[in-house]
Amino acid sequence: MHTDYERYRKMASLAQVGWWEADLTGGYYLCSDFLCDLLDLDGDTISFSDFLNLVREDYRCQIAHEFRANSSIHKDFYEQTFPIYSKYGEVWLHTRLASREKGTGTNGGDKSFGVIQRVEAPEQIEQKKALKRVNDLLLRQNYISQSLYRFLRDERVEECVTEILKDILNLYNGKGRVYIFEYNKEHTYRSCTYEVVSEGMSTEKQCWQDIPVDRSEWWNQQILSGKAIVLNSLKQLPEEVSEMRREFAERGVYSFMVTPLMAGDHVWGGMGIELIDSYRNWSNEDFQWFSSLGNIISICIELRIAKDKVTYEQSFLRNLFHFMPMGYIRMSVLRDENNKPYDYRITDANQISAHFFGKPLEQYVGVLASDLFSDHSEKMDFILEVLDGKSYKEKDEYFPQTGLYTHWIVYSPEKDEVVGLFTDSTEAVEANRALDRSEKLFKNIFANIPAGVEIYDKDGYLLDLNNKNLEIFGIANKEDVIGINFFENPNVPQTIRDRVRNEDLVDFRLNYSFDQIKGYYRTMRSNVIELYSKVTKLYDREGEFIGYILISIDNTERIDAMNRIRDFENFFLMISDFAKVGYAKLNLLNRKGYAIKQWYKNMGEEEDIALSDVVGVYRKMHPEDRKGLLDFYKEVKVGKRKHFQGEMRILRPGTENEWNWVNTNVMVTQYKPEEGEIEIIGINYDITKLKETEAELIHARDKAEMMDRLKSAFLANMSHEIRTPLNAIVGFSDLLVETADIEERREYMKIVRENNDLLLQLISDILDLSKIEAGTFEFSHGDVDVNLLCEDLVRSMQMKTKENVKLVFEPNFSICHITSDRNRIYQVISNFVNNAIKFTSEGNIRVGYVLKDEGLEFYVQDTGIGIEKKQLPHIFERFVKLDSFVHGTGLGLSICQSIVEQLGGHIGVDSEKGKGSRFWFTIPGVVMTEESLQ
């Protein structure tokens, strides 16, 4: 077997033949070794989209369409020749479908199997053109067959038509629109009913509604006469339609084609295509294919309309027979070999007939009459009379199984087929047997029924009325109104009078005004009542019309009550909307119930979504909060809990990680799980603003407490820091006066001078801090010579360094300029240098700068004592001093940070304990160096 397989592989490779297996649900091809090598695949599969990208561009659309059609229509034939890009360059392949297997693919989808072979590419131009034209004609033919298949398999005509229009637009592979328009019955207006446009184009469908025919007279004359319009350019339009040419030009139309749509010899509309920003010389194939699709659409729409009508009528008749409030059975007569009838079978019946027969349908539908009835021969004789008489017959039938009397109408719709329709006449029979009792009962009901009843003759004159009618209309005596005519009542509109004359049953509502009676009859009532009335025609036993019966109900109190309920509901909804309070009531077991609009809104859901899709799902609720609520529902179902209250986070609409806060209260009002009911009421209200206000208050409180602490720390620190240099100045000033020794005086003067500088720096820091707090810190931007600034600073501060410490400047460029505030930059660097001098006893302090992407970075690097890692995050905070024995306020670095940030830069420190520190800050902007100037 291994040898045979190797031999097969070699033969397939030499013949350049392979196979493929398409998983239509998985969306990929399984390829043979030949294909894997040709396509340079890492494995043995390639997705549909990746394979399509290997097809040459001018064939790609055709191959994609053919494949989609083959997949959806399930054709048993598929064969194509096309070029692809392979690892050997452009090659031509010929493929055909071998077989299909249903339900063997991914998730039970279909699979297709096919063979593929490398073929010689067409070399001559005529061969290429011929192959291209054949493929194009095959593609068009495929469009037509696919269009027909869509109509045959798809009940949604609108989607079928839209897909066909898309196919047309895709075939021409250009920018444009395809549309269908229809004329009204009089052919005076036309309207666009379908439209497909290229991506990025605006639709014109809404603008093309009810367009008068005379607006484009030439156009409509051509279409209504059954002629197509085929124009390669607008220049081919007649001179007299210049306005139409202008309209087309404004829409950017270059070429267009329109074909009439006909039903028989009647033009009902047209189908057109407009190409935008490109010309096309329409060929005969273009027109024939376009017209064919138009004819398909026209014919299929007419067929679908006819089919829908027939389906509707069949469904109507079927429902009529099965759901009408009367019995229905259909019987088929059976004949022997001599064509003599000997029995009949019940072939169909409606559900209500089972009520009369007293047995389920399945016990008599499809059963012979001889097996059902002992007197089936008598029934057979009656059925034969119906067949021979060629008309309907009537009869009465008693069903002893149910004790019901029925009246039958039996007729034959076709040969050996008999239909029987029957109604329950039991009440009529019983009424005839007890006429006196029934008549007395009727009179009692007529007199005391809680609805007004009036009886009129066939001309509309009042014959009788009951007590409730006297009460409704405020009539003292029945004799005062007997004889008035219904059709002369001034409260009854003419439209209702006409309906009463022409229809068997009419119901209507009136605002019955007693002020409009005007002598029609005398009444003790006034104002207006809400009246609901029904009028039914009366017929005698022979079916002769004999009069009317009118039943009236005074709905005034009920309408008033409903209005009050409606007003209360509107008021409640208004309060709910204003207060953001939602309400829901439902059965937890089936999640069916009712919720107002605000409840949905609070839960982050749309109002039209089903309540069952929200409760128990809560997709907009934070997962942690959702778990708590779902756990509560589990405990409710087993009777452990009855109430839940919590603050839930609901995803804010239009965001991905922002939450509203909703207070949710759920309580159990009825617990009847054995009856399938656990009723709960949920009330929620939005507390987002409350939460935000609470957070702001907490933040303000924390800030106030922090400011109070800072204030206390500031006062305590400043009192100490100011007192220290003042004490030194006062003390050594006194000693300076008393001593005569020159060296001592010089030493005292040095100490006084140092404390003067310290006090001056302290006052300066306090003033800077106050300006920062007040927002009045001023900046003056200008050109800054960075090298000159650093040199001046180092020169002025060298005298402050200790004996074993060197203060040096490290210039990076011979020329370096930046636009910023020179004094503030100087202030920050000098502060860094002062700190470095304080904490560096030997080594060096280096001042410099480096070029960064965002601007210029200044630094001061020392070999001092360094800073512990845990203190680094607090180094720029106010009043932070790493060594309490070193003079300083602890404000300098905080002021530096404020200066740098207001200049738009960043500040930081890198340090290691015992190895020194590097303080740096950046100044954004354009840096001018000798390199940038060259």
From TrEMBL:
InterPro entries attached to this UniProt entry: GAF, GAF-like_dom_sf, HATPase_C_sf, HATPase_dom, His_kinase_dom, HisK_dim/P_dom, HisK_dim/P_sf, PAC
GO molecular function: ATP binding; phosphorelay sensor kinase activity
Keywords: ATP-binding, Kinase, Nucleotide-binding, Phosphoprotein, Transferase, Two-component regulatory system
Annotated PAC domain residues: 644-699
Ranges for domain Histidine kinase: 717-927
PROSITE patterns found in the cross-reference section: HIS_KIN (PS50109), PAC (PS50113), PAS (PS50112)
Transmembrane intervals: none
EC number: 2.7.13.3
UniProt keyword annotation of Kinase present: yes
Chain coiled-coil ranges: none
Domain PAS: 438-479
Record field: catalytic activity: ATP + protein L-histidine = ADP + protein N-phospho-L-histidine
PANTHER family the UniProt entry points to: HISTIDINE KINASE, TWO-COMPONENT HISTIDINE KINASE
Protein name per UniProt: histidine kinase
Originating organism: Bacteroides finegoldii
Lineage: Bacteria, Pseudomonadati, Bacteroidota, Bacteroidia, Bacteroidales
